[in-house]
Specification:
Elements (H helix, E strand, L loop, with lengths): L2 E16 L10 E18 L5 E5 L9 H12 L3 H5 L1 E6 L10 H16 L6 H11 L3 H4 L4 E6 L3 E5 L6 E6 L6 H15 L2 H6 L12 H9 L11 H8 L3 H10 L4 E4 L6 E5 L2 H14 L5 E5 L4 E8 L12 E5 L2
Parallel strand pairs: 3-4
Antiparallel strand pairs: 1-2, 1-11, 2-4, 2-5, 5-6, 7-9, 7-10, 8-9, 11-12
Length: 330
């Protein structure tokens, strides 16, 4: 096997609690991550050139992308095997960047998994997860997939049975949201409402912060969508910055969404509908009536984080019957 092609799926956050910044400079979170059907496509091919080559539209130089960092982390972990043998990785983006949909983390996870397959390194999922956590905080989730309760910086992943019985409409506004800036703005909001020195000293740097127990979070997740009590802590911060977010929430609710929220640290928002058919119908109506500056996606919740197709060489797929889901369940 010389090549592998991976569809790396996006995620949404069903609720996102962000705790005060710890003395390490990081924040603990509490969230349910859910894979959805927006995807990037990665093609990994042995090149025999003794180099790591990454190509694609990342919004940054390829050697600053999460894909390149994941490949370098994997190479270091297996004693330089990847650089010795050579790999070319081409990424076709389908997940908007700066959108809170986890595109960079999903790509990094797919890169780690694909390299593990191509080079027969036989790292376990736990080992890949530890590698992934060094690349980006959300990579560990994508190495599990489906749905999970995520805590700590993102490294504490507790998989739960994913729901696939609803539909989603994702709206991408004409601005992006950079995660570090969103956290800084949230820190400022926390400082307005509390005494940071007291709150910070109460947090442990060797454990994680918990607000709602796992069983209660999962119970909320399994309740009717219209009764979801989840909130995203970044939402009031970003609404301050972009008041037109309220219009996007109203649009989704006006077209039948049972629940609306920001995903991640923005910029995208989503509406959850009782079925994918309802979501697809709403997306069509929104597309007919809204200006072209808003991108509209009708997506499905998924029970997996990636699909994998094995390829005999870089020019011809001789094993199309070997496409299969990876990390998660059907």
């Amino acid at each position: 096997m010389n090549a592998i092609e991976i569809a790396a799926f996006a995620k949404i956050n069903v609720g996102l609690e962000v705790f005060e910044r710890k003395s390490t400079g990081y924040h603990d979170i509490e969230s349910i991550f859910q894979n959805v059907s927006l995807a990037d496509s990665l093609r990994l091919c042995r090149n025999g050139h003794g180099s790591i080559i990454v190509e694609g539209e990342f919004g940054c130089p390829p050697n600053e992308s999460s894909v390149y960092h994941a490949a370098m982390a994997f190479d270091a972990a297996c004693g330089g095997l990847v650089c010795k043998e050579g790999i070319s990785i081409y990424v076709k983006k389908g997940i908007p960047a700066g959108a809170g949909l986890g595109g960079a983390g999903s790509d990094a996870a797919a890169t780690l998994w694909g390299l593990n397959e191509l080079f027969g390194a036989r790292f376990t999922r736990d080992e890949l997860t530890r590698l992934g956590g060094r690349v980006a905080s959300d990579v560990p989730f994508f190495l599990f997939g489906g749905a999970a309760i995520v805590r700590g910086r993102g490294e504490r992943v507790s998989p739960i049975l994913p729901r696939t019985d609803f539909g989603l409409v994702v709206l991408q506004p004409p601005w992006t949201s950079q995660t570090p800036e969103a956290y800084m703005a949230l820190d400022s909001l926390h400082e307005e409402k509390s005494v940071p020195s007291v709150r910070l000293s109460a947090l442990s740097d060797v454990s994680y912060t918990l607000c709602v127990p796992d069983n209660e979070l999962e119970s909320w997740y399994r309740s009717p969508i219209a009764q979801w009590p989840f909130k995203n802590d970044f939402q009031p911060v970003l609404v301050r910055r972009h008041p037109s977010y309220q219009e996007l929430f109203s649009l989704l609710e006006g077209h039948g969404a049972a629940y609306v929220s920001l995903t991640g640290s923005g910029s995208c928002v989503f509406g959850a509908f009782e079925s994918f058919d309802h979501a697809r119908e709403a997306a069509g109506k929104l597309a007919d009536n809204q200006c072209s500056t808003i991108n509209i996606f009708a997506v499905q919740p998924l029970a997996r984080s990636m699909n994998v197709r094995y390829i005999q060489d870089c020019n011809q797929d001789t094993r199309s019957d070997k496409e299969r889901p990876c990390y998660g369940s059907d």
